[in-house]
Design a protein that fits this description.
- This protein is mainly α.
- Helices cover about 85% and strands about 0% of the residues.
- The protein contains seven helices and no strands.
- Helix 1 crosses helix 2 and helix 2 packs antiparallel against helix 3.
- It is globular and about 50 Å long.
- The N and C termini lie far apart (about 45 Å).
Length: about 140
């Protein structure tokens, strides 16, 4: 049963990304993540989190689309460097983010525990102009030439 659900999620995500295209899939993923994070920030009851989870799940279409876009932008000789850079970036974020967000949460949790989710949503929103700039038609045409 669990494997069937995992396969279905992968197929659905792939199909949705195919229909939207990578750029729109990335932006949709960011938008869904921001909506879900805002929902968590405003949730006043535990059961509300369960209503937010499908939106979070839909937000997961952005990461594979971003990785696919980056992979296509690099020639075969540099794929290893790209994958190493991506892995290093994720590792660095895995070290820095918990430290920063723990300090932030310690500072604001008594005033508003949901502020931590708003901060994460703000970081996601900050990525939108970067995605728009990095995936513009002009930029993509320059990268191919």
């Amino acid at each position: 049963m669990n494997q069937t659900r995992n396969i279905q999620q992968g197929v659905s995500r792939r199909e949705l990304t195919k229909r939207l295209g990578d750029r729109k899939a990335i932006l949709t993923g960011l938008a869904c993540s921001c909506v879900a994070l805002a929902g968590l920030a405003l949730a006043s009851r535990g059961w509300m989190v369960f209503l937010i989870m499908p939106v979070f799940a839909l937000g997961s279409i952005g990461t594979p689309a971003l990785q696919a876009l980056a992979t296509r932008a690099v020639d075969n000789d540099h794929q290893g460097q790209l994958q190493g850079l991506l892995a290093s970036t994720v590792s660095l974020a895995s070290i820095i983010a918990p430290l920063g967000f723990t300090a932030f949460y310690f500072t604001v949790h008594q005033q508003w525990p949901g502020a931590i989710w708003v901060a994460v949503a703000a970081i996601n929103l900050a990525a939108v102009p970067l995605v728009l700039l990095g995936t513009s038609r002009r930029r993509m045409a320059l990268d191919r030439s």
